From TrEMBL:
GO terms for biological process: recognition of pollen. This is S-locus lectin kinase family protein, putative. InterPro entries: Bulb-type_lectin_dom (IPR001480), Bulb-type_lectin_dom_sf (IPR036426), EGF (IPR000742), S_locus_glycoprot_dom (IPR000858), SLSG/EP1 (IPR035446). Residues 26-155 form the Bulb-type lectin domain. Residues 1-25 form the signal peptide. Keywords: Disulfide bond, EGF-like domain, Glycoprotein, Kinase, Signal, Transferase. Involved in sporophytic self-incompatibility system (the inability of flowering plants to achieve self-fertilization). It holds the Pfam family S_locus_glycop. One of its GO terms (molecular function) is kinase activity.
Length: 395
């Protein structure tokens, strides 16, 4: 009889713990709490959820992040995209914070390490331990446990530095020049497999940075060089629209773009669509219960990089869409008239590559400015000291 009281207390305690766990969602993993398959983290404001998922018809398990309250689930970030959990006994799979302060994804009761973060020992603090937290903006971070500042960039590691196929508001799309970190998007292989596909979208570091979409090593689309206001070859809506406002940061430490949502209660993301080889901005419309496509790039056939080859001009409406510039003719008429435009055009007739007496500068409007890969910028130069006789000035 005497040991019934502690037992009742024990049961009550367990019930309290049980209801406590049911009624509060947690957003952190500490060294004393692991996240098991079946449980999730929820960001403090309830927007994002992190947990285990199986994509499409796959049998692999992954750790990912999605919008908690959107029924048509889109995975916006995957931790172990290239290291799937093959073991389907979910009971023995867990995400833990190791003693060394790294996130580790363990599987099998023999504790196989599937994936981990890679914080070097130098950045480990000996006096404070680490926690992992899912922030309200969808960033999953590791920080010292006494760091309570959500906005601080004082993170030891952050998921936003390793984007998958989705660009969320607040993510940096581009380079940390000090560390050489290039944050670019890489598509899923297909909708059953989040591992890295061959479609990438990132900043190419020329003296005038551009954002380039590539399939393997082939350029699909370029934004045109940044001219201080916008991308000269991209529609202005890419920068500012009724939905987003984009901010460029170009200095000696960093070259990146980031965007914010004009209306913070809207949900809108940009992701890479591997099937169609494009990047697409979608917006969640709660009324229709769907994600709607509000912008796709490339937006048409002529928007595709190098569509008509060298000295070719792409015009969207007529058919065929490719024409040679005045004074040029198809390099290979046979291919050209069979709608294979890749070889482009060459100077007509007898004329040489040197400038002749009849050569003039001509104005062409509505064309994207040339590729700036092999150009340089003199940032000291102003319009006043423009005394260079021949030159291209990009205004
Ligand atoms: C786990 O995988 C094994 C072998 O692939 C299969 O036989 C089993 O049915 C699977 N179990 C579950 C719960 O999916
Ligand atoms: C996993 O755990 C559940 C509940 O604890 C149990 O019913 C199930 O048999 C376990 N599965 C395996 C494969 O151990
Ligand atoms: C862990 O489990 C896997 C699958 O059951 C097995 O292939 C592997 O040999 C085990 N490793 C160790 C170290 O026991
Ligand atoms: C961790 O970083 C080191 C040094 O940069 C690198 O050699 C190693 O491959 C990385 N490991 C993982 C799992 O990323
Ligand atoms: C956290 O603790 C470390 C070590 O005690 C200290 O150096 C650091 O200033 C603290 N950070 C904050 C934000 O309190
Ligand atoms: C912001 O978006 C929410 C949800 O779509 C909508 O209810 C609200 O009216 C919008 N606010 C403004 C200022 O447009
Ligand atoms: C890719 O784009 C097409 C056309 O907009 C759409 O039907 C398809 O669902 C998209 N893929 C995903 C995963 O959204
Ligand atoms: C177009 O022409 C080029 C050059 O002759 C050739 O390499 C390429 O395969 C052709 N493309 C198609 C789709 O026929
Ligand atoms: C620009 O001006 C600074 C200061 O006069 C000079 O150090 C630098 O070399 C100049 N840069 C170029 C590209 O001329």
């Amino acid at each position: 009889m005497a040991n019934i009281l502690p037992m009742i207390l024990f049961v009550i305690l367990n019930l309290i713990l049980f209801f406590f766990q049911l009624s509060t969602s947690i957003d952190t993993i500490t060294q004393f709490q692991s996240l098991n398959d079946g449980n999730t983290l929820v960001s403090n404001d309830g927007t994002f959820e992190l947990g285990f998922f199986t994509p499409g018809s796959s049998t692999n398990r992954y750790v990912g992040i999605w919008y908690k309250n959107i029924p048509k689930r889109r995975i916006v970030w995957v931790a172990n995209r290239d290291d799937p959990i093959k073991d389907n006994n979910s009971n023995s799979t867990m995400l833990i914070m190791s003693k060394e302060g790294n996130l580790e994804l363990l599987t099998n009761n023999n504790q196989t390490l599937v994936w981990s973060t890679n914080i070097t020992t130098q950045s480990l603090s000996t006096t404070s331990s680490h926690v992992a937290q899912l922030l309200d903006n969808g960033n999953f971070v590791i920080k010292a446990n006494n760091n309570t500042d959500q906005q601080s960039n004082n993170f030891l590691w952050q998921g936003f530095d390793f984007p998958c196929d989705t660009l969320l508001a607040g993510m940096k799309h581009g380079w940390d020049l000090k560390t050489g970190l290039n944050r670019q998007l890489t598509s899923w292989k297909n909708w059953d497999d989040p591992s890295s596909g061959d479609l990438t979208w990132g900043i190419v570091l020329h003296s005038n940075p551009e954002i380039v979409l590539k399939k393997g090593s082939v350029e699909i689309h370029r934004s045109g060089p940044w001219n201080g206001v916008g991308f000269s070859g991209a529609p202005m809506e890419i920068i500012t629209s009724s939905v987003i406002a984009t901010t460029p940061v170009i200095n000696s430490n960093e070259v990146y773009f980031t965007y914010s949502l004009v209306n913070k209660s809207m949900v809108s993301i940009t992701y890479l669509n591997q099937t169609l080889s494009l990047h697409e901005r979608v917006i969640w419309s709660p009324e229709d219960n769907t994600w709607s496509d509000i912008q796709s790039v490339p937006k048409n056939d002529c928007d595709v990089y190098n569509r008509c080859g060298p000295y070719g001009n792409c015009i969207h409406n007529p058919s065929p869409i490719c024409q040679c510039l005045d004074g040029f003719e198809p390099k290979s008429p046979q291919n050209w008239y069979a709608s294979n435009w890749t070889q482009g055009c060459v100077r007509k007739g007898e004329e040489t590559w040197n400038c002749g007496v009849n050569d003039r500068f001509r104005t062409f409007s509505g064309l994207k400015l040339p590729d700036t890969t092999h150009t340089w910028v003199d940032a000291n130069m102003t319009l006043e000291n423009l005394d260079v006789p021949y030159g291209l000035v990009i205004l």
